[in-house]
Design goal:
The chain has about 240 residues and is an alpha+beta fold. Helices cover about 30% and strands about 30% of the residues. It has a six-stranded antiparallel sheet with strand order 3-4-5-8-7-6. The protein has a two-stranded antiparallel ribbon with strand order 1-2. GO terms for molecular function: DNA binding; DNA-binding transcription factor activity.
Length: about 240
């Protein structure tokens, strides 16, 4: 029997839900892998099938799990690159979506500035990794990104050449560091670009840029990454489907 360790005052399905999230966060089941059937979980935790189903339903509604008809229930892998296409136009000659090129400029370890430690829930001046990169489309820099990571969880990134890892960082986080991004919150603002980012984006100082601030979390809800992406306002768009 597998025991539940969360608050005994909570309903059983909630305690099981919390325990399953903890198991996913600890990589018992990886993104894209199937979890055991409700019957197997019921036997493992000595709970009714109805209680197990309610816990699984909660995780499906939260987007942590997904049901695939005839196959089972799987740990869902979010597609975060879709936010790029929601806010900016990256299209080829035929109108197809294209992931922009990633150019890593610097990777360094340093003490966290106060805003970074607050965003990531770290102690003041905790060690973090800062990545500065640009995203290019048709060799033109369209985004400049400053990315902050807790060093304790991403130490292995300092031992590899990130510039050789492809345009997407989240698969690298998972493959190299075992850290899986499960969810993210994004805030959209605008500002006049300063000298540093004007040079990176190849625009005049004080030009308008769109700023996308993202806080990414793991399956347990712990902050993993804080980034600020600045992009050309002329390429910005916002699209949402309302039904």
């Amino acid at each position: 029997m597998n025991t539940l360790s969360s608050d005994a005052r909570l309903p059983l399905y909630q305690r099981l839900r919390d325990h399953l999230v903890e198991q996913i966060a600890n990589n018992r089941w990886r993104p894209g892998e199937a979890i055991p059937t409700e019957a197997v979980l019921s036997a493992e935790y000595e709970l009714s099938t109805g209680t197990v189903r309610k816990a699984v339903d909660a995780l499906v509604s939260e987007g942590i799990l997904e049901r695939q008809q005839g196959r089972g229930t799987f740990v869902r892998r979010p597609q975060f690159q879709s936010s790029l296409f929601r806010f900016f136009r990256f299209q080829g000659p035929a109108g197809e979506r294209q992931v922009p090129e990633s150019r890593i400029l610097t990777v360094e370890s340093l003490a966290a500035p106060s805003a970074v430690s607050e965003a990531l829930g770290l102690a003041p001046e905790a060690q973090v990794i800062r990545i500065l990169r640009t995203r290019l489309f048709d060799v033109q820099p369209l985004l400049a990104e400053e990315i902050w990571l807790p060093r304790t969880r991403f130490q292995a990134l300092l031992d590899i050449d990130l510039s050789q890892q492809g345009p997407l960082l989240y698969p690298v986080y998972e493959d190299v560091c075992g850290q899986v991004v499960a969810s993210a919150e994004e805030t959209l603002t605008a500002e006049s670009v300063n000298e540093v980012y004007a040079r990176l984006l190849q625009v005049p100082v004080n030009s308008p840029v769109v700023v996308i601030e993202r806080l990414a979390r793991d399956y347990a809800g712990q902050p993993l990454e804080w980034r600020r992406s600045r992009g050309h306002a002329e390429h910005f768009r916002y699209r949402v489907d309302i039904r």
